[in-house]
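Sharing a chain and its predicted structure for anyone who wants a worked example. Both blocks are below, sequence first, tokens second.
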Amino acid sequence: MRIKLIIAYAVIPLGLFSQSISLDSCLNLAEKAYPLKNKEELLRQSVEINNKISTIAYYPSLKINAQATWQTDVTMLEVDNPMFADMLPDVSKDQYKVYAEFSQTIWDGGITQSRKELENAGLQTDLQRINVDIYHYKEQLVDLFFAALNLQKQIEILQMKEWQIDNVISDLRAAKDNDAAMQVQIDVLLAEKLVLKQNITELQFEVNSLIKLFSEYCNTEFDELSIFLVPTPELSLNEVMTRPELLLFDYSSDQILAGKDLLKSARNPKVFAFAQAGYGRPGLNMLSNEFQPYAIVGAKFVWTPWEWNKTKNEMQLLEIKSDIVRNNEQVFLLHQNAKLEAQSEKIEKINAISEQDESILELRESITKTYLVQLNNGVIKSSDYLNVLNDENTQRLKMELHQLLLYQAIVKYNMLKGELYE
């Protein structure tokens, strides 16, 4: 009886009634479930409160004051004419007053508005810093996703080999019934099948661990039969880099610029209106020793024309910080361009290696077919057949893994430029 050559994939239980996990959905779910995402709303609330606090500077203020003092001397008028001496009151050295003080900012030099702009610029910087952290987090998840695909592909190849061996065993048993094969040849194949089951079990545990990991990261319950879908990315031809770090550098520069505007506003003159109403002894008439009500209304102009170059030095400090930000941007671009070049070389290498994969696999399949014929004719042992079958499936696995490596390299190349897989 001739033994059939198996070159097609078997129907394997790996994809039976299973849940699919795609790379794009995984990244989206992971971003929504990432705890750092909640920080965005907290930052917005913080800036909103700070802006309300800044606005209070333009609200009128009212203070209630009470004061009691004793002093060593008081205002006196000495008159030589005795006729007027008794007319002049004696002013007490203990004095008392209770008064309400009202103040209203008319113009604060633009400090309030500049402070709000600085708060908003700081918010944009902090929010973008979160985006950068999330982007790095996604880059790590991409590596984990392709690690799961790698393990999954190994399981598929091993299950295919197991299916092939099952068919060979079935044919050998049929041949044994006709005294055409020895039991020892079947036992060799059975032993190999047990080893395959052992390897599949080990790999499946590793895949299940990654599935549980993604369930945690994505806040979604994936079952153990879940299948990681192979992405099919296209190499980005866009020459413009859109990494989130670049936007972070821009927002950091805007924040420094807003700080400069705040320093300039602090140098501007300020105008206030004020009023005071009270009751005390003495009142506004310092020569009266009676308790009297009084009121004062006025305006105040405040300007500091000279501050020993304090603002100038602070401006220079902000200029240095701005130069540091741009220097960090140049360093980042240098490293990023180097990584892109290396990743491009890796893609070319994988493409070059993959060109021979199909030819090698065809040769391995042809060799396996020849060995099957020889095994059918009793020329070789099962172990000899298993050797060439192993070579065939090893090459098939290499071809599949080369494809996965190519997809992973393309995804990482695009991400280095700032483009996520969608």
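Comments welcome. The CA atoms of residues 2 and 377 lie 8 Å apart.
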